Amino acid sequence: MIKSGIIGFTRNLAEDLRGTGVSAVAVCPGVMVGPHALERMRGGSTSQSRPALEYAIDQVAVGRFSLPEEVANMAVVAASPVGACLSGTAIGVGGGGMTD
User: Fold this and answer.
1) How many CB atoms within 10 Å of residue 33?
2) What whole-number distance in Å separates Cα of residue 75 and Cα of residue 71?
3) Which residues of the chain have pLDDT under 50?
4) Which residues pair with 55 in a beta bridge?
């Protein structure tokens, strides 16, 4: 629900910014790897949470969670001249699946 609101806002903002040279792009991260997830992946958590984590990873097409720097890199591309033609769109950075 929140993601659809952000996408709608991005589209409306792009329309409002038409002709100004400013673009609006939503970069939508998927499941991210943080310290707690890394600990679980290394087996440092309870045995009950490990199967759930493995199941979640299996739902992602690339077979792993996104890294924060991968999301940041996409934001840099969207803000650079390479992304000059992007506006009013959402870019999923989640490895395909789950939240993309």
Assistant:
1) 15
2) 6
3) 99
4) none
